[in-house]
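In the design runs reported in the main text, the only information available to the sequence generator was the tokenized backbone. The following block is the verbatim input for one such run; it is reproduced so that readers can re-run the procedure and compare outputs position by position.
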């Protein structure tokens, strides 16, 4: 048997927002939808493409939950 080197890497949805957006559209409908051209995308999808073309970074901000316990 041949040895195969495999590397698996997790990618946050921010790395491919358009794929995440289209996947959410697919989950929310039972109808078949195809987007083969830019102008067929809904406006939010076009916005994602434009932001990506301009190389504007998408930052994930994670807030920490603070437990506020009163010891009165």
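Verbatim output:
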């Amino acid at each position: 048997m041949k040895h195969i080197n495999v590397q698996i890497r997790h990618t946050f949805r921010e790395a491919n927002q358009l794929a995440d957006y289209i996947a959410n559209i697919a989950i929310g409908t039972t109808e078949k939808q195809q987007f083969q051209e830019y102008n067929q995308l809904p406006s939010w999808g076009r916005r994602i493409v434009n932001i990506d073309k301009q190389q504007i970074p998408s930052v994930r901000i994670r807030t920490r939950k603070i437990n506020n316990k009163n010891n009165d």
